[in-house]
């Protein structure tokens, strides 16, 4: 039971993230294509992008990279939700009825950063697989699955290549965790003070909806930069990468289109992130109740 007690927060997080990813994967595919289109002068209209995917790849095109997405959820979401539960439990003093927001923030940022580094290889594979069909036929990597993507990256770019973009990925995860978990905890306290029953469906749903908005708003600029860094390829003539790093990428994007360029595709991103955050949090709540009903 000691082993299960240690593993349970991570298993709960992994299950919650996988349920949400299966529901949101098509929107995530459109989101990535919109961001790439915004950086390369292509279409940023989600309906146009969706139509192009359907025309070229059929319904299965919306689920390319699902294996990598699920692998990422097992590692990334399992770690960030599991670590957050552990960190908040240890940070709470016996005399505190609820955690002060600064402690909530510290727990969310720490859990998000650590989890993102652990999940970066799967996240990188997901981005590469989703972007691959947009490349000219001669430049495509033609990954057959998440395993092939991971082994190809390690073979061609070395083991450190699996952690390309880990800095912006970790920063984005910290911002997303701050918005999602930090404001979920805060919103639950607000709603309880407003008279909603603690642990009720209304409180859980309302808090997850609030958390979904803040998760989207805070994380999109970092997600946009992360996508550009992870999918970049050397110039075929000079051999140079288009960006020296995430900061250089962000500066060039702002120079090209102003600060709002970092929020390119916000409607699509919100439709992808907010429901994913809500489904994850709602699923987490139900999985926790399931463990209680099973007595484990």
Question: Can you describe what's shown?
Answer:
The chain is an all-alpha fold and 296 residues long. 75% of the residues lie in helices and 0% in strands. The protein contains nine helices and no strands. It has helices at residues 2-40, 46-57, 66-91, 101-132, 146-157, 166-193, 201-231, 246-257, 266-294. It is globular and about 65 Å long. The N and C termini lie close together (8 Å). The mean pLDDT is 86.
Computed over alpha carbons, the radius of gyration is 20 Å
The level of helicity is: over 70%
Strand content: under 5%
Name the shape in a single word. globular
For the biggest sheet, the summary is: none
- As residue ranges, the low-confidence spans are none
Q: Strand-and-helix sequence, N→C? A: HHHHHHHHH
Number of strands: 0
End-to-end span in angstroms? 8 Å
Structural class: mainly alpha
The helix count comes to 9
Mean pLDDT: 86
In brief:
By secondary structure, the protein is mainly α.
Q: What structural keywords apply?
A:
single chain; 296 residues; mainly alpha; globular
Architecture blueprint of SSEs:
Blueprint: H1 2-40, H2 46-57, H3 66-91, H4 101-132, H5 146-157, H6 166-193, H7 201-231, H8 246-257, H9 266-294
Helix pairs in contact: 1-2, 1-3, 1-9, 3-4, 4-5, 4-6, 6-7, 7-8, 7-9
């Amino acid at each position: 039971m000691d082993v299960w007690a240690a593993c349970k927060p991570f298993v709960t997080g992994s299950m919650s993230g996988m349920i949400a990813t299966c529901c949101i994967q098509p929107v995530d595919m459109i989101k990535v294509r919109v961001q790439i289109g915004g950086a390369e002068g292509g279409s940023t209209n989600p309906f146009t992008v969706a139509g192009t995917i359907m025309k070229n790849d059929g319904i299965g095109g919306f689920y390319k990279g699902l294996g990598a997405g699920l692998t990422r959820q097992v590692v990334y979401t399992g770690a960030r939700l599991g670590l957050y539960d552990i960190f908040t439990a240890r940070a709470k003093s016996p005399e505190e009825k609820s955690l002060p927001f600064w402690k909530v923030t510290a727990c969310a940022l720490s859990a998000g950063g650590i989890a993102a580094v652990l999940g970066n290889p799967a996240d990188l594979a997901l981005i590469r697989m989703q972007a691959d069909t947009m490349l000219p036929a001669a430049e495509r990597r033609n990954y057959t699955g998440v395993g092939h993507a991971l082994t190809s990256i390690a073979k061609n770019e070395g083991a450190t290549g699996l952690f390309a973009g880990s800095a912006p990925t970790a920063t984005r995860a910290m911002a997303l965790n701050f918005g999602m978990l930090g404001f979920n905890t805060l919103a639950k306290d607000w709603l309880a003070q407003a008279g909603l029953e603690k642990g009720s469906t209304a409180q859980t749903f309302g808090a997850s909806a609030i958390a979904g908005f803040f998760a989207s708003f805070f994380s999109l600029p970092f997600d946009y930069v992360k996508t550009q860094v992870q999918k970049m390829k050397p110039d075929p003539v000079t051999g140079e990468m288009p960006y020296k790093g995430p900061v250089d990428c962000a500066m060039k994007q702002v120079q090209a289109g102003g600060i709002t360029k970092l929020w390119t595709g916000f409607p699509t991103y919100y439709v992808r992130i907010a429901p994913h955050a809500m489904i994850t949090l709602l699923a987490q709540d139900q999985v926790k109740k399931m463990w209680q009903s099973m007595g484990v």
